[in-house]
Design goal:
Elements: H1 3-8, E1 12-19, E2 32-39, E3 41-42, H2 53-63, H3 75-95, E4 102-105, H4 108-120, E5 128-133, H5 138-150, E6 153-158, H6 168-174, E7 179-183, H7 197-206, E8 210-214, E9 231-235, E10 246-250, H8 265-268, H9 276-290, H10 293-314, E11 318-321, E12 331-336, H11 341-350, E13 353-354, H12 370-374, H13 379-382, E14 385-389, H14 396-421
Parallel strand pairs: 3-13, 5-6, 5-7, 7-8, 8-9
Antiparallel strand pairs: 1-2, 4-10, 9-10, 11-12, 12-14
The protein binds pyridoxal-5'-phosphate.
Length: about 425
């Protein structure tokens, strides 16, 4: 089966565009809203991915006929319960884990919060020591900061190098007898930098410290070995499943303190009626995304590298951010020195190219990325960074068109500078 064509169709997508009527100039305020065919080049797969057909098909019965509450004991409830059980079995099998090790949540933020807060708070006495790093996603960063500022925990924030890698000696030396938890992401959402989880796991195991990892960006893009961690956070919409659905892998036998209160769902670890359709879609997407994953990785890496080669030729002052040898195959983070991220994102958007200045959660406030600043990049580089992230639908034609768009932007930027200096 051709998996790219299976779910995602062509690069041309129908979008509702605000298009000027032919008789009006671009500057007219009045515009007609009409549906038209526009060429959108989506290079923001780390923000979210489109739903694959397999997920959509798996979800539909639970949005229609099988709408029951999985906690109900009647036939409608039992049908919904069967879907939850089936999804749990599938996900566990894919991860070589046990079904009871999967806790369904409302997405990655909740999974990370449950992993960090639930494990840290679990020990009998309040307070203690936690280790994390400043380049984590805010789902972990802010949970750890909450423990630090409001619950009497002491936190060691590890440094990352200029290329975004952790210093393993610093990690080993930071662990103390009272350390309760280490939380280190497997792959960074902004730079794609991959941390050496095997070594990190060994350091934590040798010292008897729990390890949580935010695996959100890595699943489907890297081989994941959950036996290396005690807890791992996942989100369906990063691997072609639905939004608002995720899970926490929690090693068998580990106690965790719930962060919400209500019913006894998920073995008393996460209350609330399960998102049945979402969970069914997530399991189907997980199976789908792991199919042909190696070949897809190579294909995306090639496209990503071709894109960088074109960018380098066009823009005089650019740099790639993140360790090129330890990076997700789909991610390219580039600083276009002298052009701030917001201006570049708008220029790209006008050209029909969707990219990001970093974490989607920061959209609306294009600030310098905390990840790039943690890597010690000068403000100028951090403020001019753009993240391009490729996915299953990305084609060579799209990459060539996106590079052409950047070439036009570079030309316009140069002309504007010359005009300003004249
Ligand atoms: C690495 C990482 N962790 C956590 C999250 C939070 O995901 P969500 O907003 O789906 O809860 C994201 C989303 O961008 C992410 O990239």
């Amino acid at each position: 089966m051709n998996f790219r064509n299976d779910c995602l169709g062509s690069a041309r997508v129908r979008v509702l565009a605000m298009a000027p009527s032919p008789s009006r100039t671009f500057f007219h305020h009045e515009r007609e809203q009409k549906e038209e065919e526009v060429l959108m080049i989506y290079l923001d797969y780390n923000a979210t991915t489109p739903l694959c057909d397999a997920a959509r098909e798996a979800m539909l019965p639970y949005l229609n006929r099988h709408f029951g509450n999985p906690s109900s004991i009647h036939a409608a409830g039992r049908a919904a319960r069967a879907a939850i059980d089936d999804a749990r079995d599938k996900l566990a099998a894919l991860l070589h884990a046990k079904p009871g090790e999967i806790i369904f949540t409302g997405g990655a933020t909740e999974s990370c919060n449950l992993g960090v807060l639930g494990l840290a708070r679990c020990a009998s006495s309040r307070g203690g020591h936690i280790i994390s790093n400043k380049a984590e996603h805010h789902a972990v960063l802010n949970a750890v900061e909450h423990l630090e500022n409001r619950e009497g925990f002491e936190v060691t924030w590890l440094n990352v190098s200029k290329t975004g890698m952790l210093d393993l000696d610093q990690l080993a030396n930071s662990i103390r007898p009272e350390t309760k938890l280490v939380s280190i992401m497997t792959a960074n959402n902004e730079t794609g930098v991959i941390q050496p989880m095997r070594e990190i796991s060994q350091i934590c195991r040798d010292r008897g410290v729990l390890l949580h990892s935010d695996v959100v960006q890595a699943f489907g893009k890297l081989d994941i070995d959950v036996s290396l961690v005690d807890a791992g956070s996942f989100a369906a919409h990063k691997f072609y499943g639905p939004k608002g659905t995720g899970f926490l892998f929690l090693r068998s036998g580990l106690p965790i303190e719930p962060i919400m209160f209500g019913g006894a769902h998920e073995n008393q670890r996460r209350p609330g009626t399960e998102n049945v359709a979402g969970v069914a879609g997530m399991a189907a997407a997980a199976e789908w995304v792991l199919h042909d994953a190696d070949a897809e990785r190579q294909r995306q890496a090639q496209l990503r590298n071709d894109f960088w080669t074109r960018i380098e030729k066009v823009f005089a002052d650019t740099q790639q951010n993140g360790d090129p040898a330890h990076r997700l195959a789909n991610t390219l983070n580039v600083s276009f020195i002298g052009v701030d991220s917001e201006t570049m994102l708008m220029a790209l958007d006008l050209e029909g190219v969707c990219a990001s200045s970093g974490s989607a959660c920061m959209v609306g406030s294009v600030r310098a990325s905390h990840v790039l600043l943690a890597m010690g990049l000068p403000m100028e580089s951090a403020r001019s960074a753009i993240r391009f992230s490729l996915g299953r639908r990305t084609t060579a034609e799209e990459i060539a068109n996106a590079a052409d768009a950047l070439e036009r932007i570079a030309k316009r930027t140069k002309e504007a500078r010359e005009y300003a200096l004249a």
